[in-house]
Structure formats: structure tokens, C-alpha cells
Amino acid sequence: MWTGYEEALVRYGLDMCDVWVAAGRADTTAATMRADVAAARALTVIRTQPELAAAGELPPWLGDDALHLSHRSALVRKDPDFYRPLFGDIPADLPYVWPASDRT
Q1: Which contacts (CB < 8 Å, 24+ apart) does range 61-66 have?
Q2: Could you tell me if 53 and 11 lie in one domain?
Q3: What is the pTM of this model?
Q4: Where does the source fall among the domains of life (predicted)?
């Protein structure tokens, strides 16, 4: 799914860390993600999502309705009290959609 899009995966993770920290929680993963992608792909600067999009470096499934619906369904299944108000009447029993990477 993310193969060949490691920088985009790290960008997603770093953006999640930013939201986590903005909510007053401690970040324990951003440095590890940066170190891992630097070691694996020699990336020391992680571009923004708009920069990645402009360079054609976002996975083609990003924005795919079926994928996002399936993952929202899983969140509702895992914590309905929290996610049901966010996602409305999404069924809680949809199977995951895991597209293969086009770069494998």
C-alpha cells in the first residue's frame, strides 16, 4: 500500500503527531519516523502534502472513497462512542480495503 511512498507515509505520521501534540499530548514517535526514513531512504527533509502532490509522490489510492469508508468503518467498530458522532451512519462491519502499491 505504502511501498514506494515512504515519504508520504512519514508526512502522514508527522501530521498525526502535530494533531496529537496540539491536543496537549506528548509526542513519542516523530523522531523515530524521521530517523527510520532517513536510514531507509536517505530522506532528511520531509515535504508537505501539497509539495508531495505537486511532485506526484502521493499514492494513487489517497482520496479513494472505498478505502476511506472501510477505515472509518473500522474506527466505528473499535470505538463507536467516539467515532459514531463523527462518521454518522457508516456501517461498522465493512471489510478493510488495502490497495496494492503501484510501485511494488
Answers
A1: 61/1, 61/99, 62/8, 64/97, 64/99, 66/97
A2: yes
A3: 0.89
A4: Bacteria
